[in-house]
Design goal:
With 166 residues, the chain is of the alpha/beta class. The chain is 27% helix and 25% strand. The protein has a single domain, classed as P-loop containing nucleotide triphosphate hydrolases (Rossmann fold, 3-Layer(aba) Sandwich), CATH 3.40.50. Strands 1-7-6-2-5-4-3 form a 7-stranded mixed beta sheet. Helix 1 crosses helix 2. It is globular, with a radius of gyration of 15 Å. The chain binds adenosine-5'-triphosphate (ATP) and magnesium ion.
Length: 166
């Protein structure tokens, strides 16, 4: 919990609910926000990122940028979608010039962010998605963890984002 401002926990019982949480978050995002996604393979990180892109008004296809490392989507703001899964060395990140994207006019979202946490800004919204073992297929617990004094994501605000219903 080091550096986490507080913890907000939500439950999703299907893909649409997770995507809709991302969408409601995307509708609220301000320039320069960095979202760090954490969760095992198939947890729903890309599903969540898809919702964020949609909430930002992007209408195209959103997939894990595993091989290209970064996808750019243009909506109300630019969204930089990263995936650290295939990265082995932190030096490879330097080549990407992350700073340029993290402190920019757009929003960044990073899958497998826990692989290189030091490469991320201290101030970020971490979203950890955990499969619920009691329901092997569809249940997920989402842990929203604003870090480093991030503004705009109070408990009340996260409640609206995570509220079920469309
Ligand atoms: N409640 C749920 N929320 C999100 N995805 C769900 C849920 N229930 C089932 N799923 C399924 O889980 C899968 C999530 O896949 P997704 O590609 O988003 O995972 P990921 O975390 O990005 O994995 P990877 O690490 O491989 O990139 C999808 O097939 C989706 O349909
Ligand atoms: Mg993915």
């Amino acid at each position: 919990m080091n550096g986490v401002d507080f913890l907000f926990v939500a439950k999703s019982t299907n893909e649409e609910i997770t995507r809709n949480m991302g969408k409601k978050l995307g509708e609220k995002l301000k320039p320069g926000t960095v979202i760090a996604l954490i969760g095992e393979l198939g947890a729903g990180k890309t599903v969540f990122a898809r919702g964020v892109a949609e909430g930002l008004g992007f209408t195209g296809i959103v997939n894990s940028p595993s091989f290209v490392l970064m996808n750019l989507y243009r909506g109300r703001m630019e969204l930089y979608h990263f995936d650290f899964y295939r990265l082995e060395e932190e030096e490879e990140l330097q080549e990407l010039g992350l700073e340029e994207y993290f402190y920019a006019k757009g929003v960044a979202i990073v899958e497998w962010a826990d692989k290189f946490p030091a490469a991320l800004p201290v101030k970020r919204l971490e979203v950890e998605i955990v499969k619920d073992d009691r329901d092997l297929d569809n249940s997920r617990i989402l842990y929203f963890k604003p870090r480093g004094g991030l503004d705009g994501f109070s408990c009340e605000e996260l409640k609206k984002i995570a509220a079920p219903g469309f």
